[in-house]
Specification:
Blueprint lengths: L2 E6 L8 H10 L6 E6 L1 H7 L8 E5 L8 H19 L4 E5 L3 E2 L4 H10 L4 E6 L1 E2 L7 E2 L4 E5 H6 L6 E2 L2 E2 L2 H14 L4 E5 L5 E3 L5 E2 L3 H4 L5
Parallel strand pairs: 1-2, 1-4, 2-3, 6-12
Antiparallel strand pairs: 4-9, 5-13, 6-9, 7-8, 10-11, 13-14
Length: 215
């Protein structure tokens, strides 16, 4: 299967560098292209992962002071635009740097796709990096079709100093499309992924959550 990986890298995610490259190298089906977004200082550190012919770095043109939430939103949107402009594949895997997928995640996604021809988004829950009994519902491990990424940008809303993440708005839009019955935008316990913590711990799903896994 041809697909691209889109990963925004925040300055606080340096601990995940080696885990990320090991996870990418372990995938049974390698990505056509890996798009990474970071600030310049982060870029130089992550280059220690090795020079790779299939990596495109999308860097912020100027160093700006942004909060983590804003930085992730900017990063995802820069990656989305670059991926669409290059037009290499129909599918993209949105993967945060501290999420560790199984090597066969692409194989499992392909099998799932056979029974879901209308699928445009498959968002897989992931364990909290703090408490394995909790789950997170964001975009950290999400398969998105080109048409879904073309449909709506990654943006955030701020009201009276309170900001929503880009994932909430984007997921709400995809949910509305899903209700039209012409496309499928699904979310749930699909893939057995792990979540790395900065203290070195690797969080996994609880037994209860693993029993819910679909793929």
């Amino acid at each position: 299967m041809e697909y691209c990986v889109l990963t925004p890298i925040g300055p606080q995610k340096g601990y995940a560098r080696d885990l990320y490259w090991n996870a990418i190298d372990s995938l049974k089906q390698s990505p056509t292209q890996i798009y990474l977004y970071s600030k310049r200082n982060v870029h130089y550190d992550w280059m220690k992962g090795g020079k790779r012919s299939n990596v495109t770095w999308c860097q912020e043109p100027e160093e700006t002071k942004t909060r983590t939430l804003q930085a992730v939103t900017i990063g995802r949107e820069v990656l989305r635009q670059k991926y669409l402009n290059d037009g290499l594949t129909d599918w993209a895997l949105l993967l945060d740097p501290d999420i560790i997928p199984r090597p066969d995640i692409i194989d499992k996604f392909e099998e799932f796709l056979k029974d879901h021809p209308l699928l445009v988004v498959l968002r897989s829950y992931h364990p909290s990096r703090v408490d394995s009994s909790e789950i997170r519902h964001g975009l950290s491990c999400t398969f998105a079709h080109r048409e879904a990424l073309e449909a709506y940008p990654f943006t955030m809303a701020c009201i009276r100093g309170v900001c929503t993440g880009d994932d909430l708005i984007w997921m709400a839009v995809m949910g509305q499309l899903n209700r039209r019955k012409h496309v499928e935008a699904l979310a749930g316990f699909y893939f057995d992924v792990k979540h790395a913590h900065e203290d070195g711990r690797i969080k996994e799903f609880s037994r209860e959550h693993k029993r819910k896994l679909i793929c």
